Amino acid sequence: MAQSGRESGELMQRPQYLSTAAFVHDKSGKNDMTDAAPIDVTVPPKVNLIGLSREQMEAYFATLGEKKFRAGQVMKWIHQQGITEFSEMTNLAKSLRVKLEQYAEVRPPKVTHKHFSADGTRKWIIEVAPNAMVETVLIPDGDRKTLCVSSQVGCALDCSFCSTGKQGFMRDLTPAEIIGQVWIANRSYLDDGEFSGRNADGELTRTRALTNVVMMGMGEPLLNLDAVLPAMSLMLDDYAYGLSKRRVTLSTSGVVPMMDKFTQAIDVSLAVSLHAPNDELRNELVPINKKYPLSELMAACKRWLVHHQGSEVGRRRVTMEYVMLAGVNDQPEHAAQLIELLRDVPSKINLIPFNPFPHAPYDSTPRVQIIEFQNQLIRAGYTCTIRATRGDDIDAACGQLVGQVKDRTRRAERWQAQTRNNEIIRV
User: Fold this and answer.
1) Is the dihedral of CA 372, 374, 376, 379 positive or negative?
2) Could you give the C-alpha distances from 304 to 257, 279, 286, 316, 397, in angstroms and in order?
3) Who contacts 20 (Cβ-Cβ below 8 Å, separation ≥6)?
4) Among 361, 338, 359, which Cα is nearest to 350's?
5) Residue 358 half-sphere exposure toward CB, CA atoms < 13 A
6) What is the C-alpha end-to-end distance of the chain, expressed in Å?
7) pLDDT of residue 310
8) Using H for helix, E for strand and C for coil, what is the string for 125-150?
9) CA–centroid distance for 44 within its chain
């Protein structure tokens, strides 16, 4: 979570350390360092500006003795123009550029591989540490370009139908690593030449590359909320990506206490990885349901709606994500239970065809049956869509993101052992 100005300023201060030598004098009067204890002079690392919120950036510039409007100028260069070299930020004074070169940097995450699908989907594999990689996917649909962003290396949860969960969990991502995924996707379109020229300040002028961001990649965002919040604030900030609160979505499996914290902290859209209409089935598919059952999850959704309705009464809805698993959760009785479950929770339902992964214990529901399920929900008065499968030729479809995880939970080890022994069965 964003720190106060004073706290962030103190943390980000990078004073200039002066190296000094300890001299002793021998009887001849010569300087002699042979008996002097070595002095450890440590220069702190440069501050990476890419992950700082506007408040943090303003506090940082204050530590440099600069006006806070400089923060907005630099944020525009970083996030809107994709510039990482201070020497190219031409509307900054040369003295400030020199100072920034000395104390700061703009360091986006390292892209190790990128894959572009025949349908226009783009996937980047990003290395955040040795043996730690995450994936982010951009899905174009006409003028709409939606980026699916990861929040953890692996996932702390273990949903039975999701390949990410089978990789186990290593660590949370930092704000810079989260917003860095947005930077990479935006820069990708800049590199394609999607701009029309430069303005009087030397800035690129172009149409906006990204239109939507969804926190639906690797990881459970609410279990890394302190890093997710400042990253999402940059997605909304007019000096960064300037996205509408209706076009930035956080998806959760239902960590109820953190849902309430999220509700109070930021106004963006909410999606819930529901996937089952009753507790017995959801306990199997989404194990966190054993701790926070559907009654508590639905109550948290209602609290989010009440808090954010304001003047938009009747317009804000929770998106319910529902993966379609053949013979598991796709029967007419499941649709009827779903209708009853959501009766008092204004919702729109997104049906997701299951994308198989190696040794997955489920099959995808046939398309015709998904449409029948959809029609049953529509007849009950719900808005219900079917998510188009995109990027499956580059393993970028929903539920297929796996990255590379140095697992701290041994979950991946157990899963691999089960696959070797052909023990993968539904619980």
Assistant:
1) negative
2) 12, 21, 21, 10, 29
3) 39, 41
4) 338
5) 10
6) 38
7) 66
8) EEEEECCEEEEEEEEEECCEEEEECC
9) 28
Task: Tell me the DSSP string of 148-217.
Answer: E---EEE-SS--TT-TTGGG-EEEEPPHHHHHHHHHHHHHHHHHTT---EE-TTS-EE---S--EEEE-S
Tens-place pLDDT, residues 401-415: 444 444 454 544 554
- What positions carry a catalytic annotation? 135, 398
Model confidence band, residue 141 (pLDDT cutoffs 50, 70, 90): confident
Residues making up the chain, counted from first to last: 427
Q: Report d(CA 357, CA 165) in Å as an integer.
A: 12
Cα separation, 70 vs 61, in Å, equals 7
Tell me the domains of the chain and their CATH numbers: 1-12+43-107 (1.10.150.530), 110-420 (3.20.20.70)
- Backbone angles phi and psi of 109, in degrees to 5: -60, 155
Q: What is the pLDDT of residues 298-345, one digit of tens each?
A: 999 999 999 998 655 567 999 999 999 999 999 999 999 999 999 999
Please tell me the distance from the alpha carbon of residue 407 to that of residue 302, in angstroms, as a whole number: 35
pLDDT score, position 201: 62
CA distance 277 to 27: 88
Angstrom distances, CA of residue 150 to CA of 10, 27, 109, 134, 231: 29, 66, 13, 7, 11
Q: What is the CB-side half-sphere exposure of residue 427 using CA atoms within 13 A?
A: 13
Q: Taking the CA of residue 323 as centre, how many other CA atoms within 13 Å lie in the half-sphere pointing to its CB?
A: 23
3 Rama class: left (phi>0) / alpha (psi -120 to 50) / beta: beta
What are the structure tokens assigned to 348, written together?
A: 């729109």
3-state secondary structure 56-69: HHHHHHHHCCCCCH
